[in-house]
Amino acid sequence: MLNDAIIGTFKASLRGELIQRSDAGYEEARKLYNGMIDKRPLVIARCADAADVIHAVRFGRENNLLTAIRGGGHNGPGLGSCNDGLVIDLSLMKGVRVDPANRTVRVAGGCTQGDVDHAAHAFGLAIPAGVVSTTGIGGLTLGGGHGYLARRYGLTIDNLLEADVVLADGSPVIASESQHEDLFWALRGGGGNFGVVTSFLFKAHPVKTVFAGPIFWDLKDGQRVMKWYRKFLPEAPVELSPFLGLQTVPSTEPFPKEIWGKKICALVTCYTGPLDKAEEAIQPIRRELPTPILDWMGPMPFPALQSLFDPLLPKGLQWYWKGDFVRELSDEAIDVHLEHALKAPSELSLMHLYPIDGAVHRVGPKETAWNCRNAIWSMVIDGVDPDPAKAQALKEWGRGYWEAVHPFNLVGAYVNFMMDEAEGRIRSTYGDNYDRLVDIKKKFDPTNFFRVNQNIKPA
Ligand SMILES: Cc1cc2nc3c(=O)[nH]c(=O)nc-3n(C[C@H](O)[C@H](O)[C@H](O)COP(=O)(O)OP(=O)(O)OC[C@H]3O[C@@H](n4cnc5c(N)ncnc54)[C@H](O)[C@@H]3O)c2cc1C
Known about the structure:
Layout: H1 4-13, E1 17-20, H2 26-30, E2 43-46, H3 50-62, E3 67-70, E4 86-89, E5 96-99, E6 104-108, H4 113-121, E7 125-126, H5 137-143, H6 150-153, E8 160-166, E9 172-176, H7 181-187, E10 196-203, E11 205-206, E12 209-218, H8 222-235, E13 240-248, E14 263-271, H9 278-287, E15 294-295, E16 298-301, H10 302-306, E17 318-326, H11 331-342, E18 350-355, E19 377-385, H12 391-405, H13 423-430, H14 434-444
Parallel strand pairs: 2-4, 3-4
Antiparallel strand pairs: 1-2, 5-6, 6-10, 7-11, 8-9, 8-10, 12-14, 12-15, 12-16, 13-14, 13-18, 17-19, 18-19
Helix pairs in contact: 8-11, 11-12
Flavin-adenine dinucleotide is lined by residues 33, 69-76, 79-80, 90, 109, 130-132, 135-136, 138-140, 142-143, 145-147, 191-192, 196-197, 313, 416, 452-453.
């Protein structure tokens, strides 16, 4: 049983903060990005450095506490927190160090996507990661990580060079191709199952001003756009990465009022090649498709693209997630997509297809824990709305849409696009890599101390 003396000793061991239920900041500190998830941990340890994380892991172990790791707190099912246990919150751990000569970026475990983009951009560099600046780099990386740079430079894990990890017994290790290679393999896609990563070292790439932005068509043109897109994308140069969305124009500035609330098929594009070649590269999108209702593609700094959606997606909205890996978009699948997109229960609800071909396919399925190296897209269906009263409708729409379209997709899904899924789903996602992940879990976390995640059980 925890008592004041035990808590007091733990608190004194930390450079960061310890937040308990009785503290004024508790309600704010426990909030997650997904407003649908309401968890009440016993204590939140806001760690300031790796030493704090070591103390926190030992404290959790010694007191037999359910322990969650929180990076950016963006996880759909709220796996960055837990009920009645300990949260190891990394949000104070923020440093980013760019080495321009070696083109590497060292990122502390609590950084967001925006922290990394901001720091790397000043050096004319970027790391391949996600498309929303508030997402935590920790959870995103460990699940795999994909965004606009994936086709050209691979997944986030394909650019991970090294990770500082605090293991389940509290010991710190460095994982890389030359140290604890098995752990390094498992971290690249295996999620938060193996330890707390306090620092990541990434390979960076020269990306500065990109030609990018959204282009929208009325959903009645959706079938034509999707059929064109399924053929165009795999043949497109890897410098060009358009993701496809079925969604609704939000009834808000800066969108033109006459299209507010319109159901659309969208492409959100990023071209990272030479700017003077950009217009030519995106020409087919403008030339071969029906007249769009909005075209905002143009040159912009990479971090501006990365934060384009931030104002629409503040913390605290209701989110219900379902995902799949997709290899083909058949005519039948497109019809199912369009039928369900039309029934979206809110303006923010969406379906996105993120490209994961190109450089992602150059890594073999056994080289990292991320097994699916033959999908063209990572699909996500998100029911999203500010109103908690809509939660049930968001879930029903998301599930219904997914059940209808899943038969056309691959068996697995991106672990970061899952809600509460059955164990079988995790297993099928990791495919042939699952047994090796179990062995590595047994070696580094035999008691399943880190189990607030898309869990790989040690037995
Ligand atoms: C608006 C939005 C946009 C998104 N866009 C993308 C996208 O473009 N591309 C993409 O790949 N994903 C995207 N995602 C999904 C995202 O990758 C996941 O939500 C991910 O879990 C976020 O990581 P986090 O650190 O914020 O999560 P948290 O909720 O803090 O943690 C989630 C999980 O990660 C583990 N974890 C986090 N940090 C660490 C760490 N340092 N060490 C060990 N374990 C850790 C925890 O155990 C926990 O299980 C998006 C999510 C949202 C909400």
